[in-house]
From TrEMBL:
The name this protein goes by in its record: 5-nucleotidase family protein in cluster with NagD-like phosphatase
Lineage of the species this protein comes from: Bacteria, Bacillati, Bacillota, Bacilli, Lactobacillales
InterPro entries, per the entry: 5'-Nucleotdase_C_sf, 5_nucleotidase/apyrase, Calcineurin-like_PHP, Metallo-depent_PP-like, Pesterase_YunD
Residue span, Calcineurin-like phosphoesterase domain: 24-217
CDD domains xref list: MPP_UshA_N_like
Highest rank taxon of the organism: Bacteria
């Protein structure tokens, strides 16, 4: 552990002047979310900050893969892995975007070409360690210090089991791993968020360094809690992390510097824009080559008809075998063209959102509809961020299979009966966000795994059903 005298201050020093003996350099990034516009700077940072150091560890702490970028979507994340390989990573762990943004079959092959290990101990495959991950990695420095590296990800118990994964409690897993560790120094790659990290720092005596992620927090100059060092570098490559540690001959940390370096402090190069544009262009070309359907006509998505929204809602109802769909027009970001490719569909339905099948009573449905329109009127022009939404504004409430006028509901053309049961389909954003508390407290909800909205639409149209 870092000695108590070191906990309350940061030792800043000039790298050119420091005695390099017993020095460990750690470089890390997290939550890139396929923001490749910052990748050239990150790559140079990792390379330049490694020069002159015998012992360098490089980590990615998860959510590198985000299907919002065309190259990530077209390659199902394999394009990200190629870029991660160029960073010469020591190891990585996964975030929820890898674990839940990809179907199980996709995640099983995501890291096939990786030249670094994935460290992950709290997700299992039918009780066994996934073939693409290890529970920990042990390394030895040039000066003889052993380091145990652990990796954990946010558990999401409502989602991982239905995606085909077993999820374990990260705190219990970490407690066992640390109890079994005989290493001189321990590092946790934590895609668990700052609350977990700070509690872990208070709880475990032999946890030396936590590299954090998931909640997009930044520790600009690190944080020290009860002898544990914490570092975190925000999101999107807006920051890159650097930790420099010096040890005595008994492997006690006697000097430390923790920095989350702002990307604006890093120099750009003339070729950066071309690199960034090429990554996007490659993704668009791959997606454009995959034709989804030739429709009888295109569908606009504007008030009052919202043709595109109703078209998509009808497909979702048919594919999920639910009579009625409730969604918001902002889910459909653009008009649907007559000749539809995967590139178009990625722009039109960019969200990492699945549908939820809800079973409610008639009286609950009446309360839900009143809430949806009341809150929806406020949300319609609001910019929505998070919960998988990748659009612009919420938009208007769209109904398929039911109508709501003058506080009266017709479900499949018939009045709603209070004590009868009804099934509705809504985006999972309504379940995870705080917009609609009455809906969240009503009936029973089943998330429809594993496909995203656009995957459902693509599969349906590729079957030749066009109207």
């Amino acid at each position: 552990m870092i000695e108590k005298a070191t906990q309350d201050r940061l030792f800043c020093y000039n790298e050119a002047m420091i005695n390099q003996e017993n020095v460990l350099k750690i470089l890390h990034l997290n939550d890139l979310h396929s923001h490749f516009e910052n990748y050239p700077k990150i790559k140079r940072f990792f390379k330049e900050k490694s020069v002159g150091f015998s012992d360098v560890l490089r980590f990615d702490i998860g959510d590198n893969v985000d299907r919002s970028h065309p190259l990530t979507e077209a390659t199902l994340g394999k394009g990200n892995i190629a870029l991660m390989n160029d960073l010469q990573l020591t190891a990585a762990t996964i975030g929820n975007n890898e674990g839940l943004g990809l179907q199980k079959s996709m995640l099983d092959v995501l890291y096939a070409s990786a030249n670094f290990p994935i460290i992950l101990a709290n997700i299992k495959d039918k009780g066994l360690q996934p073939s693409w991950a290890v529970e920990k990695k042990t390394v030895m420095t040039s000066f003889g210090m052993t380091i145990d590296i652990f990796g954990l990800t946010a558990p999401y118990p409502l989602a991982y089991p239905d995606m085909g994964w077993d999820i374990l409690d990260p705190q219990a897993v970490l407690a066992k791993q640390l109890a079994d560790s005989e290493a001189d120094f321990t590092i946790l790659l934590s895609h668990l968020g700052w609350r977990f990290d700070e509690l872990a720092a208070q709880t475990f005596d032999n946890l030396d360094l936590i590299l954090g992620a998931h909640t997009h927090h930044v520790y600009e100059f690190g944080k020290y809690i009860d002898g544990t060092m914490l570092a975190a570098a925000g999101r999107y490559g807006e920051y890159v992390g650097e930790v420099t540690l010096r040890f005595d001959d008994q492997f006690q940390c006697i000097q430390s510097e923790i920095i989350a370096e702002d990307k604006h402090h890093l120099a750009s190069k003339a070729e950066d824009k071309a690199v960034i544009a090429e990554l996007a262009s490659r993704g668009h070309d791959l997606l454009k080559a995959d034709q989804v359907a030739c429709l009888p006509n295109g569908y606009a998505n504007h008030y009052p008809t919202y043709q595109a929204s109703h078209f998509v809602a009808a497909i979702l109802a048919a594919e999920n075998q639910v009579p009625a769909v409730i969604m918001n027009s902002g889910m459909i970001v653009d008009a649907i063209p007559q000749l539809l490719t995967l590139d178009d569909l990625h722009d039109i339905l960019p969200h990492s959102i699945r549908m939820v099948k809800w079973t409610v009573s008639g009286s609950e449905l009446k309360a839900i509809m009143a809430e949806l329109y009341d809150v929806g009127n406020y949300l319609k022009t609001q910019k929505i961020v998070g919960m998988g939404f990748r659009g612009k504004v919420f938009g208007d409430i769209i109904l398929s299979g039911m109508t709501y006028e003058n506080d009266q509901i017709l479900y499949q053309g018939s009045p709603v009966i209070d004590d009868a049961d009804y099934r509705i389909l809504v985006p999972d954003q309504y379940l995870f966000a705080a917009y609609f508390p009455i809906l969240k407290a009503s009936g029973t909800a089943e998330i429809q795994f594993p496909r995203f909205m656009r995957e459902i639409v693509a599969d349906y149209l590729k079957q030749g059903v066009s109207d």
